[in-house]
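Lecture 7, part 2: worked example. A protein chain together with copper (II) ion.
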Amino acid sequence: MRRTGRGSCAALFLFAAGCRGVYSTLDPATREAARITTLHWVMYWMCAAFFVAMMTVLAVAVSRQRRSETPEGDRRRSVSVAVAAGISTGLLLVLLAASVVTGHANVAPAGAKALEIEVIGHQWWWEVRYPARSSAHDVTTANEIHVPVGRAVRLQLSSGDVIHSFWVPNLHGKKDLIPGRRTSQVFHVEKEGTFRGQCAEFCGYQHAHMGLVVFAESPRLFEAWLDRQRRLASEPAGGAERHGREVFLSSPCVLCHTIRGGGAFGHKAPDLTHLASRTTIASATLPNTPGHLAGWVTDPQSIKPGNRMPPNILAANDLDDLVSYLRSLR
Ligand code: HEC
Ligand SMILES: [Cu+2]
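Predicted complex, written out as C-alpha cells:
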C-alpha cells in the first residue's frame, strides 16, 4: 500500500515536471531534440504493441491447456516458436536501425555560420563564453546561456577540473565535458522559451546544485543581449554604489572574480561584469534578488556546502552597498 503511494507520488511528480515544459525530453525545442522524441515514441509504441501481443498469445495458450503430444503438434509448436523469434529479432533490428539513423542525423556538422559558444564545467558552476573575432569583444558569463532561434548553435564543451555532463533535455541529449579534451554539441533551436539544464555526471558534493538556464529568443533580442554583454561594467551611479565598489575591490572578491571595466581580474569564479542581467545565481540555485545576493555573499557555504567561495564577514552598511553595486551591474 505504502509502496503504491510512493510510486504514484513519483509518477505525479514526473508528470508535473514534464508538464512545466521547461525540463522535458518530450517537449523538444530543437530539430535534434525532436528527432530524439520521435525515436522515443517509436520505441515506446513498438514495445507497447509487442507487449500486448505477447500477453494475448500467452493468455490464449494458458486458457487452452490442450495436450497434443503428437508429432504433428510438435512440429506446429516449433514453427510458431521460430516465427515468434523471427518477428522479435526483426523488431529489434528496426529499433537498432532507427536509433542509428537518429544518432547519425544528430551529429551532422553545423556549418561555418553556426554560433560558437564555449561552455566550461567547473565544480560547481558553468562558465560560458561567446568568442568574438577580436578578443576585446569576447563575452564571458555564467550559468545562463542565450541562443537565437533559427540559427545553428555549436557548443564547444570542456572542463576545468573533473568530468561533468551538459544536459538540457529540451535541446539535445547529454554530452560529457572531459578534462583535457574538447567535445561539441550542435543544435538548431526552433522554438522560443526558457529551458532548464543540469549537470548529468556526478562531479562531487554540489553536483545536484549545478544547474543552468537556456534562453532561446528571437535573433533581435539575442543580438541586443550580446551587445550589452560586450560592454564594460557600468560606472557606479550614486554614493552607495561607489562605496560598494570600494568594498568589492578591497575584499578577497577580486582574487576570484572578474568585473571587466571594474578593476577585478580573478579567474576562478563566475564573471560578474553583468551579474544583474542574470535571473539566477550560484548555478541556478537561487533567484537573483538583493536578499539572496546578500545571503550568498555572507554565507555561501550554508547554501552550497563545499563550494569554492569562502564566507565574508562585512559590516551591515558595507554589505548593503556591496549588494547595491552588484545590482547595478546590468
Ligand atoms: C576563493 C574564491 C572566491 C572569493 C574570494 C569570492 N568568491 Fe564569489 N564565487 C566564487 C565561486 C567559485 C563561485 C561559484 C560558486 C558556485 O556556484 O558553485 C562564486 C559565486 C559568486 C556569486 C554568484 C555568481 C553567479 O552568477 O552565480 C557572486 C554574486 C559572488 N560570488 C560574489 C562574491 C563577492 C561579492 C565576493 C567578495 C566579498 C566573493 N564573491 C568572493 C569564488 C569566490
Ligand atoms: Cu555534475
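The radius of gyration is 27 Å. The pocket of copper (II) ion (ligand 2) is lined by residues 164, 199, 201-203, 207, 210 (CB under 6 Å). Keep this in mind for problem set question 3.
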